[in-house]
Amino acid sequence: MAQFGEELRRERESRGIALELITDSTKISGRHLVALERERFEQLPGGVFNKGIVRGYARAVGLDEEFWVARYVSAYHASGLVKSDDADWIQFAENVVKGRETEGARANLRLRWAGVFVLLVLIAGLGWFVYSFVHEKVSATEEIPQSRQSGSALIAPPMSDGYVRLDSCAGCPRNRG
Question: Is 54 a residue whose pLDDT tops 80?
């Protein structure tokens, strides 16, 4: 993999892109881009920044970013310049990428929340139905004793001798008319 930097430079030149243009579009230092093309990895900032430089370079030139990052990692390991902290940073970055949720996992999560929402709406609807049904039944049972009381009010109170006077009954059929 000693040709990594040379092939990267050839790809850039074949597309007619100057290093200054990459520097302007990516804000990556020109000296880092030159160090990358010359495979002087010790002049790069190190850690995950190096992968970001390769990714930005590949994007600016129009290359497959993942392919060139993998090529960089292979060339970097083959150079023997890997420091222990660089290896730790690389492992950390790989774990972060693996730990991120995929779009499919987010869709499943949205689907679960939609199911919870539908369930809550159904429970609320059922609760409203039960409440209105019970309220209607309670109202109906409360009206029955009132009508019995009002029916007894139609009968005149007993007189002092214990008899009921029928002509004072307003609801009696005889007294109508």
Answer: yes
**Domain CATH for 61:** 1.10.260.40
Regarding whether 65 and 116 lie in a shared domain, the answer is no
Q: What pLDDT score does 1 carry?
A: 43
pLDDT of residue 122 exceeding 90: yes
CB 22 within 8 A of CB 33: yes
Distance CA 149, CA 163 (A): 20
Q: Does residue 113 have a pLDDT over 60?
A: yes
Place of tokens 């679960």: 112
CA–CA separation, 51 and 92 (whole Å): 13
Q: Which domain holds residue 148?
A: 108-177
* pLDDT for the residue 3: 87
Alpha helices for 80-165 (secondary structure H): 84-99, 103-152
Question: How do the residues of the chain divide into helix, strand and coil, expressed in percent and rounded to 5?
Answer: 70, 0, 25
Please give the tally of structural domains in the chain: 2
